[in-house]
Structure formats: structure tokens, C-alpha cells
Please model this.
Amino acid sequence: MKLQPPKIPKKYQPLGFEILHEDLDLIVGNKAAGFLTVAALWEKTNTIENALNTYVRKGNAKSRKCIYVVHRLDQFTSGVLVFAKSEEAQFALKDNWPNTTKYYYAIVLGKMEKKSGLIESYLQEDEEYYVKSTNDNSKGKLARTEYKVIKETQHLSLLKINLLTGKKNQIRVHLAEAGHPVFGDLKYGKKTVNKSHLMLHAHSISFLHPFKKTPMEIVAPAPDYFNKLIEYDY
Model:
């Protein structure tokens, strides 16, 4: 008999995180833009991590159940996010992370000269938490971003991105430095364009289940505001 996780009352469903898959070892969901994955200097409690801890505890403040972070998404990036229900599952997923496939959608400013390609650089973060490329590989970490233009309008391009490494702000930095910042990126892009949404979405993730070793692919639908900029079957 196949065991299933218990049904959780709707009032304990996590805010800002639509659960797409749950089993005894994993929770995978679609994070809404604007929500932190984990605590930051400016926000300690209103995070997806804390919301999921409440979720797995079924509202029991005395419960010691908790979830374990596998990877993160930027606060204003939406999309698929994986959490483990045990340290063993967390370690197994992280150990296999180089073999995990992660696709993103990004709407960027302008038309790219090369319609597909690979952007590589060493990224470093300064004391102001600003990430940029460096020629000194002793100061930065190698980041690799593969992209393909899948639709264009007069002023914008829709890219499908294969995130080959997962460094902080990687996609945003690489595209901005290529001259095509993500639409709505107030940190690395043009601050006068769009102050409501960062047009970056983690669309899908493919990996082996940490214990069953079965292949899994979880797809997170893009927010409606993507179609308002560029119509596409996201």
C-alpha cells in the first residue's frame, strides 16, 4: 500500500506558495513573487520557510517537525521551489543538484543579437550585496547561463533559460551585463520601466527522487502578468 502524506486543513496552507507536489520526503510548490524563501536582514518571519514549518506542524506550536531548504529563489522571482522534509532528503537532493535541470522564463529589454547562447562569468558579491562579474576567478564563482530567444516584440524578448549553475542573482546579472536586463529589475536594470513585477519565473525542475530514485519533473505555471507583456503558452 502506498503511503500518502496526511490531508492538511486549508487554513494551514502556506501563503504565497501553491503546493504542486507533496510526498513523505518532499514538498514542491510555486512561489509567488514578493515572498522570501528564507529570512533576510529586513524580514525574519514572513518567509516561505516559516510558512511551510507551520504547514507541516498542522498548527501545533509544540511540534518539532520542520522543513529543510534545498535551494532558493530571489524575493521577486516566482516559480518552482523544492523543500525536503528531512535532513537525509535535503542532503540527497543537494548531492545530486549538479544533475538537476532548471528552466526559467525571462522577459528582457530589447532584441538579442544572438538568439541562443551560453553566458559564462565569475560572479562576486560586494559589501552592498550587489553581484557582478569579475575576471579574477579567485574572487568569484563560476556561473553558467544557457538561453534561447523564443519570442520577440518590438521592444522585448522572451527567453527560455537553462540554469546550469545556481549563483545568487545569476540570471539577472548575466542578462543585464549582456545589455538586456530583465524587465522590471530595479537592482540591475532600468529603474524607470516597471516597478510592479520582475519578469523572471522558474518554470520547471527535473530531478531524481532522493530515495525512490524515480525521475520527477515539476512545472509551475507562470503568473498571468507574463501574458500581458508577451502572449505565449507558458
Q: What stands out?
A: The first strand starts at residue 17 and ends at 22. The mean pLDDT is 91.
